[in-house]
Every structure is written in structure tokens, then in C-alpha cells.
Amino acid sequence: FMGFGTKGDQYPAFGFICGIFVIQALLLVWIWKRYFSNLPTWLVPLAIVFVGLISPFPWILTRARFFEAASTGGQFFFLLGLYLLLISVADGNNSKWKLLLAGASWALAMGSRPTHILPMGITVVMFLFLEYRDYIWHRQPSRSLYPFLIALIPFAIGMSILGWYNWA
User: Fold this and answer.
1) Backbone CA torsion sign across 127, 131, 137, 139
2) Cβ distance 22 to 83 under 8 Å?
3) pTM surpassing 0.85?
4) Rg of the chain in Å (alpha carbons)
5) How open is the CA angle 134-137-142, to the nearest 5 degrees?
């Protein structure tokens, strides 16, 4: 029997773990290009291998049950939302579809594991501070709240659906 909560949940956990590794690699490449491009290129694959080897994911796959599938799913969607937010806002293009996908990813992270509210809250506060620090310190007009509001729309819809589902 491969029902819910037994060994059958190793498959979604494995898929989420693979996705986490890909997102971590993309984040490393983005951080290297944006902030550390003067470092040698050979350090990037070394960092990707290091990130892949330091995680507890092989252990999780040997005992994957529904808690592990939900936890890895939440982590995958959180990292995906963070990556999409970074690449959209940092380059100044404020791509609508990337911002919408970031908000939707964070709604899926919350649906997977509500405990992701803490890292998402910290990330949102840091994002708002970094984006609007000129206004906070100098009261000078800065960027609009447009990127934040675009990402907030699918997140609010997702949380409304989750709330309705829990109520029903």
C-alpha cells in the first residue's frame, strides 16, 4: 500500500528537493553575478556542489512521510518566491508576471506549512526596508509600492482560498 502518509510521499518530497537544489543554484549564480562577479568563475560550481551536499535531504528521502513532503514543498515555494522577487525588483524592471508568481509561490508555501509565516514576514520587512530606505531616512520620494502590491494580490487570494477551505 502506497497511500497518503506512507512511503508514497517520498516522490513529491524528492521533486521538491530537486526543485530546492535548482533554486539554490539559481540564487547562487544571481548573487555571484550581481555582487561578486570579480571572483573567479570556478567558485560558482564549487559553491553549488557545496550547497547540494550540506543539506539533510538524503536523510529526508529515506523517511519521507507527509510532514517531510509538506516541509520540503513549503521550502521550495518560499525560495522560488524569493528568487522571483529578487530578479524582478533588483534589476528595476518590475516584471508583472514574476511578481505575480512570487506572490503565488508564497501563498503555496503558506499552504504547505503555515510556519513559513516567520521567514516570509522577515523577508517582506527586509524587502520593504531596502526598497524604501531613502524615504524612511530622508523623507525623499522613492519607488512606489507597485511591486509590493502586485506580489500581494495572488498572496491575498491564496490566503483567502486557504482560509475558506479551513473554514469549510
Assistant:
1) negative
2) no
3) no
4) 18
5) 25
pLDDT digits (tens, 9 = 90+) for 111-149: 888 888 888 888 888 877 777 766 666 665 555 667 777
Give me the residue label for grid cell 530537486: 18
CB count, 10 Å around CB of 38?
A: 6
Q: Give the pLDDT score at 64.
A: 58
Contact between 76 and 24 (Cβ < 8 Å):
no
C-alpha cell at 93: 524592471
CA distances 137 to 8, 47, 69, Å, are 53, 36, 43
How many Å from the N-terminal Cα to the C-terminal Cα in the chain? 30
